[in-house]
Design goal:
Strand content: 35-45%
Largest sheet: 10 strands, antiparallel
Radius of gyration: 24 Å
Number of strands: 31
Structural class: mainly beta
Shape: globular
Number of helices: 2
Helix content: under 10%
């Protein structure tokens, strides 16, 4: 058996092992969270909502009428409150059975059994005609507010449809002992590529490895870190890693994950809980020193991770539904929006279906400017330092691009004349077949297919790939992952990364889902062209809906 066949076999065995906390990559630490649970409660492959029984704790058979939503006269809005008052102890997985013909926003209100003055209220959203809603309460993350034995006091529901009255029936509320073991990373594979993620940071992509080729991270004789395939380790200067994660995961904000924006102000009802006078309580970059509404999948600038609402985990399929975390703050602010991501493999590529529904209920959104939505933000390891893109003005194969740091200029085509530092911001219509990549000098790397984006943005955190330059290889951020404190992980260096954002220029809208798909492929650019072309021709990844202004508008 040759070396890459052995690697493939090892990864397949590890991914399929129930109870394994390490498979083909790094494992996250538990951070002191509520992670208890046996293997039959761990959420490893095969464990979905259907695997669990629910104990009814509340039933109601009445149908009620809910008036249409009127933001100008809140007291007249259709709203109903149910007195549950049930001690659920340490259980945190709920299922509601309902009947509704309108969209609903509600609140689950509960308090600590040990100290009833410790209370929490969780906002949720249910779409019209749904008959079931499941959710984990806020107990399994960094910054969790409900990690205590609790009593549910009341649950409320409100019609948020402003065009019609509705009918609603709260048939039952059930509770289950299903838990999330946040320290257990989740992996799926097609036998050639491994995807890894964790509930600890919202289910974003934190691990991507190609296992059916001899891929190494190694140092050349000049001290540069390189990543390449078909490498003979006996003929390179020094091997750093034999199992190569191609994703930069230096902090909560890198990885590969969607990041959504709305430029709402206080007059729109945006009043985040932070002290604007305390300059150390929020991130001041990018927005002229003022935070903006930014639901993100992986966590916030202060190190708090998002709330998983639900997930389905199988050996070759992963669905995550989570509540976005506002990125700009140290103060643990949850966004009111559901990020739903589905991962699966097709024809050698990882396909990612995305859905975001905001239920923040901000007002006067017609006056808010459009934003550049990161559909996802992709952060690759820095040895993949050439940006590759086939455009109508020519092919880009460029390693000289810089960061979006306020000093660099936008370069909108390979023919664009710029002086000094630059990054690429290519118009969508000029990118052939809707894909681009970061690769090495041999054109091996990771490509992303995201058709019908408005712009394709590419930049780099730092130009250098030299291992010995400490100023450009800061020590890996270790709070969420298990690495020795003395260990430097060159390809994960904090400020060295390669970034691609297929951006759509859209305005966030309440209760209207934004849906799209993208695909990732690890290989050379000729393989990317063939695989991505097949996904588009087969109708797997097309994003035809993004051509329309319906849903999230462009104006």
């Amino acid at each position: 058996m040759n070396k890459h066949s052995l690697k493939k076999l090892i990864c397949l065995l590890l991914v399929g092992m129930i109870g394994s906390s390490y498979a083909c990559g790094s494992s996250s630490s538990d951070g002191g969270n509520n992670d208890s649970g046996s293997s039959t409660q761990s959420g490893l492959p095969g464990y979905t909502a259907e695997s669990y029984s629910f104990t009814p704790i509340y039933t109601d058979g009445d149908t009620v009428n809910l008036n249409a939503y009127n933001p100008d006269v809140p007291e007249e809005n259709g709203n109903v409150v149910y007195d549950v008052y049930s001690n659920i102890g340490g259980k945190n997985y709920l299922k509601m059975e309902i009947e509704t013909d309108v969209n609903l926003v509600g609140y689950i209100n509960y308090y600590s059994n040990e100290n009833p003055t410790v209370i929490n209220s969780e906002k949720f959203y249910i779409e019209a005609n749904d008959t079931e809603f499941t959710t984990f309460l806020d107990a399994y993350r960094v910054g969790a507010r409900g990690a205590f034995d609790k009593t549910i006091s009341t649950i409320s529901f409100q019609n948020v449809d402003d065009t019609k009255d509705g009918t609603f029936k709260f048939k039952s509320l059930g509770i289950s002992d299903r838990k999330i073991v946040t320290k257990e990373d989740m992996y799926i594979t097609d036998g050639a590529t491994v995807l890894g993620t964790s509930p600890y940071y919202g289910g974003c992509i934190s691990y991507l490895e190609r296992t059916d080729a001899d891929i190494y991270e190694y140092m050349d004789s000049d001290g540069n870190i390189c990543v390449d395939r078909d490498v003979d380790p006996d003929f390179v200067y020094q091997v750093s890693k034999e199992r190569v994660n191609l994703v930069n995961i230096c902090d909560l904000g890198r990885e590969i994950q969607p990041s959504y924006y709305s430029l709402v102000q206080e007059e729109n009802g945006y009043k985040p809980d932070y002290d604007p006078e305390d300059k150390d309580s929020y991130y001041q970059g990018l927005t002229n020193g003022k935070p903006i509404y930014n639901p993100i999948q992986c966590g916030d600038y202060g190190g708090h991770t998002p709330q998983i609402i639900d997930y389905v985990y199988k050996e070759d399929y992963l669905y995550i539904k989570m509540k976005g975390q506002e990125w700009f703050f140290f103060t643990n602010i949850q966004a009111n929006g559901y990020i739903e991501v589905t991962y699966y493999f097709k024809d050698g590529a990882l396909v990612v279906d995305n859905r975001y529904t905001d239920f923040s209920q901000f007002i006067n959104l017609e006056d808010v400017a459009v934003s550049s939505q990161e559909t996802p933000a992709t952060y690759f390891v820095y040895p993949l330092n050439y940006f590759y893109c086939e455009t109508r003005q020519g092919t880009i194969f460029d390693k000289n691009i810089s960061a979006q740091n306020g000093r660099s200029q936008e370069r909108t085509s390979p023919r664009g004349e710029v002086s000094g530092e630059y990054f690429y911001a290519l118009k969508g219509r000029n990118v052939i077949d809707g894909w681009c990549a970061f690769v090495n000098e041999n054109k091996f790397g990771v490509g992303i297919l995201m058709p019908n984006a408005d712009r394709y943005i590419a930049s780099r955190g730092q130009i250098s790939t030299n291992y010995f330059n400490e100023t450009e290889n800061t020590r890996y951020y270790k709070e969420f992952f298990q690495f020795d404190e003395s260990e430097i992980i060159p390809s994960y260096a904090t400020f060295n990364y390669s970034y691609i954002n297929p951006a759509i220029i859209r305005k966030m809208v309440n209760f209207v889902p934004l849906e799209y798909s993208y695909a990732l492929y690890v290989g050379d650019v000729e393989e990317m062209r063939d695989v991505f072309g097949g996904l588009q021709d087969g109708g797997v990844v097309t994003n035809e809906n993004l051509k329309s202004d319906e849903g999230w508008p462009r104006k």
